[in-house]
Specification:
heterodimer, A: 146 residues, alpha+beta, 47% helix, B: 370 residues, alpha/beta, Rossmann fold, 2 domains, 7-stranded mixed β-sheet, 13% strand
């Protein structure tokens, strides 16, 4: 189905990919300043002022990292839309109490809970019924110690 | 002119000038920059919502084509369906508003079902498939509505350049996106007829009534008389396995009147919204009518219970809004036996042997037979 395809593919939209011009301008100005700061850091280091060089290198490095992170974030957010469609499982149980054979398979269209199946139990040949349909969420929820 | 006294390095001068300019820009345009950042965030979410909404529409059309085998392309009719609206009753004089709302909701339900029957002629006589298709279309309708509302406030914020409009939208967006993603995963569940988290109430009722004679009660519900801990339990749920919540208010009224009010207690089982920090599938117990929706059913149930002085207990299974409309999680399925044990305790502690009790599983019966 379409939703399965949607879960896998990465979709793009030309219009929405356009990053706000003003914001992009600011990011690039800061990027340029950070590069200049790094140059100054190198220059100051060769002059002999190690403390000033360290300060410039720190400021330049942090600004550069922030700018690159912002650009990466914009690119990522604008291009990716993912919806996880988890696997849904169907539990089938044999109605013969002496057997109680249990099978778990992937959900098929037409399955519903308490549906009597035409397929006989592979162990005892008894009647089988769907007893549960559920999805298993594999991602562990984040817990907070409060 | 030197911006840093005592230092003539031209690069250092340019850098310090840049810093000054940047500082001044932030003083005057700081708020606007903040707004652009927020607008950008809203834009990204709106882009995601548009894709989810489009996929919802396509899923609904494909499900109709696959199940209903229409002779003509149903796209135009689906688009009309997605734009349907319901006008609530006038509330200036609130007396009788519940019955007015009830009538409006009935009309809406009939109208939507009729439309689905026209769109899917092959499934017109199959109530299960009609209900599933209707639920699929309603999920697509919800996605369409969410997208349009977010887009409205986004455009309004951009037009007026109001930080506060954009800020409010940006603040609630994580919750809106969570709901939209839940509806997106509900689409597949409805199209395939998979049980959803909200169906935990009907699932428990089914487990209690399975193997006993079941009869239909108005509207779209079923009831069975089941021996339970020496009591006669009337177990009620929406008719499955199609996507259907029935009208438990009408059904409970009907059963209570049938018994001439001789019901020791009513126990309602439903899915309840969990608070952050609570676990999915936790079972909790209380009193009152455990039922959501616009309030019509709750009103009818409370009126009838008050008339006959019937006590009302509630047992809920905790889950969040995403779990309620997406395929049932294993934790919720595992809570079924715990709820039955809890109901057993309530019945033993609060009623006498030989009493007649009413147990209602509230929720959507999609994927749950009886």
């Amino acid at each position: 189905m379409r939703l399965n395809k949607m879960a896998q593919q990465t979709q793009q939209s030309g219009q929405s990919n356009k990053i706000g011009n003003y914001l992009l301008l600011i990011v690039f100005v800061v990027l340029a300043l950070s590069v200049v700061a790094l140059f100054v850091a190198v220059e100051t280091y060769f002059i002999g002022d190690i403390i000033a060089a360290g300060i410039f290198a720190g400021i330049g490095g942090i600004a550069l990292a922030i700018c690159l992170f912002l650009l990466y974030q914009y690119r990522r957010q604008a291009t990716e839309v993912k919806i996880d469609i988890p696997k849904v499982m169907t539990t089938i149980e044999c109605q013969n109490k002496g057997c109680a054979n249990k099978t778990i398979r992937e959900f098929q269209r037409g399955d519903y809970i308490f549906k009597d199946l035409d397929v006989a139990c592979p162990k005892c040949g008894g009647k089988q019924m769907i007893t549960a349909i559920y999805k298993e969420v594999k991602v562990k929820e984040k817990t907070y110690s409060v | 002119m030197s911006f840093i006294p005592g230092n003539d390095s031209p690069i250092l001068q340019i850098l310090s000038l840049g810093m000054y300019v940047f500082f001044i820009i932030f003083i005057f345009y700081g708020q606007r920059i903040q707004m652009y950042v927020m607008v950008r965030e809203v834009e990204n979410s709106l882009h995601k919502l548009r894709i989810i909404k489009e996929e919802g529409r396509k899923t609904a059309i494909e499900a109709i084509k696959e199940i209903g085998k229409p002779t003509a392309d149903p796209s135009a009719r689906v688009d009309r369906y997605l734009e349907y609206f319901t006008i609530g009753p006038q509330s200036m004089d609130p007396a009788g508003i519940v019955h007015k709302l009830d009538h409006i909701l009935d009309t809406r339900d009939e109208r939507l079902k009729e439309d689905v029957r026209i769109m899917a002629p092959e499934a017109a006589n199959n109530d299960v498939q009609i209900n599933n298709l209707e639920n699929t279309l309603e999920a697509a309708m919800a996605l369409n509505y969410i997208y349009k509302v977010v887009r409205h406030y986004y455009i309004q914020g951009k037009k007026t350049l109001s930080l506060y409009v954009i800020m409010q939208l940006q603040m609630i967006l994580p919750l809106v996106m969570k709901e939209a993603e839940a509806y997106a995963s509900a689409l597949k569940a409805f199209a395939y007829g998979q049980p959803i988290g909200d169906g935990v109430g009907p699932l428990i009722a089914s487990k209690l009534m399975h193997g006993y004679e079941v009869r239909k009660v108005p509207k779209d519900c079923v009831v069975a008389s089941v021996p339970f801990e020496g009591r006669n339990a009337l177990v009620l749920k929406a008719e499955g396995p199609g996507g259907n919540v029935g009208k438990p208010g009408d059904a409970i009224e009907h059963v209570i009147e049938e018994q001439q009010g001789n019901i020791a207690c009513l126990i309602m089982i439903d899915a309840g919204l969990k608070l952050e920090g609570e676990l999915v599938g936790e079972v909790s117990e209380g009193i009152g009518a455990a039922i959501g929706g616009p309030g019509v059913d709750q009103f009818k149930i409370e009126a009838k219970l008050t008339k006959y002085k019937i006590r009302n207990y509630a047992v809920i299974v905790k889950e969040d809004v995403g779990d309620a409309v997406s395929p049932m999680r294993k934790e919720i399925n595992d809570a079924v036996d715990k709820v039955i044990e809890r109901v057993r305790d309530v019945v033993k502690e609060r009623t006498k042997e030989g009493d007649t009790i009413l147990i209602v599983g509230v929720g959507n019966s999609i994927g749950v037979g009886q």
